[in-house]
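Supplementary Text 2. Reproducibility record for the structural model of the 603-residue chain.

All settings were left at their defaults, and a single model was retained for analysis rather than an ensemble. We include the record here because the model underlies the residue-level annotations in Supplementary Table 4.
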Amino acid sequence: MTQRIDDYALIGDLQTAALVGRDGSIDWLCLPRFDSAACFAALLGDENNGHWRIAPKGATTCTSRRYVEDSLILETFWTTRTGTVKVVDFMPQRDKSPDVMRIVEGVSGTVEMSAALRLRFDYGSIVPWVRRADGHRVAVAGPDAVWLRSEPPVKTWGQQFATCSSFTVAAREKVAFVLTWHPSHEPRPDLVDPFEALELSLEDWRAWAARCTYRGPHREAVLRSLITLKALTYAPTGGIVAAPTTSLPEELGGVRNWDYRACWLRDSSLTLGALLAAGYVEEAAAWRDWLLRSVAGDPADLQIMYGPAGERRLPETTLPWLRGYADSAPVRTGNAAVEQFQLDVYGEVMDSLNRAREAGIPAERHAWNLQLSLLGFLESTWRNPDEGLWEVRGPRRHFTHSKVMAWVAADRAVRTLEADPSLPGDPARWRAMRDEIHAEVCAKAYDPERNTFTQSYGSRELDAATLLIPQVGFLPPDDPRVVGTVDAVRKELLHGGFLRRYSTDSGTVDGLPGQEGTFLVCSFWLADALRLTGRTEEARRLFDRLVSLRNDVGLLAEEYDPVARRQLGNFPQAFSHIGLVGTAFALAAEEEEAEEEAAETAG
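Retained model, structure tokens:
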């Protein structure tokens, strides 16, 4: 039976990640990077496409699970008629080669355990040759080699193209399994002690979590979201992937299945804001540096997304041998949206670098010249239609959010030059551009009859992205057009208490058939907009409902189906967790200001 998307938990080593189900099976793992081919792809097919299950014999679903303190170390508990056992899953930060470690520990009584490892390289399509070597199992196919060992040694045997084992653990007994990948043409890496690695990993996560500056009422949710963002960081470069998965559907059985194992510029400003607000300046600086390296070059070649190391080629292909999660096909790798023209990315880049500068992150000497080059290109292109924030695969339009973000680009250039007049540049030029964009948006994107900004010029469709208008400073929150937009978006796009990105009923906007779930980050934007327009209690109630959607270990996917009450889309999704952190900080700051005002009044 297919597990729900929210039945999974995440482990990772800051270069790749795995999904562990409530049944004790790792059903998704790409090695050695987030965007490498998967060696466990049961998530998008079945167990014959690769998985690794460790569980009590005959058991189906665990009793409970949790992360150890504020870490990415997962504990899964199983209570059987003969005893209780826990499995500790984690991936230590690597020196060279990635390791997946699974430690089985008896808690009480005795429990008979069974394990099955099915390695299938290249997204579940290649069965490796498995042999014994140095007392371990080694699987090899083409460029990939994977070693399996246990401490103490456990007898294994081959069965139906899987490596199986059966063993019993009593209270306080431990058996550790270690899976190690390396290029097949290289020798086996040095062995890593799994028990020592567990202690070191926990120490690393404790130290990292202790740096979090958030002290509001939702600290657990905020810190778990920050840990998730850290887990989605590609440590060698500082890039943050949107999700560690591909093709988890936005509609069960539908075609809205995309590869999110890349770094989107659209996330950059919000990511920087979340990291800086929480005190993670080093991570914010690394993300800023990744951004500068990735966008360097001809401004006309600016992409909306890049690979974890800044790669530009992300060709989209389909994998027909995988049936898709819940028969949602096609399964895709790469993303053709990389070739789209999206105006908003220029504003996101400018806003990100402005945030970094205001936070005191030392500026790179070449960064401002790069920004001037981007602005010069935007000056000649902002009047053109584009595919917009949501990467629609329908016709290009004059999307309102895209134009607003073009305004942001000019506005942040003016702010930068006003703050540092020694920088080269013509502030009058960018003010003129800013004013022209502002006037056009207010004239062409605003529907006075309904008192709302629309999705694009001349359209009656609405878009949740227009909720960002007051947040980016395009108009003040008390402007009647802002209040009207918030009310209209909530009225027309609300579904089951949460917000859709836009209407998909006609199929004319995004060029795709079918529907999708409510988009979680949009609901966080709605909470932000309600707060900004003076409806803080409504914002808090919506935020609390959003927090309650997290799964049992605190993770959020891209979307939520309020009818079926299940998460949809790639998982876990950085954008959703960024939204949670941003809204939590904004609500906490407002609460703190209210308390200070009350204290001054009482005094």
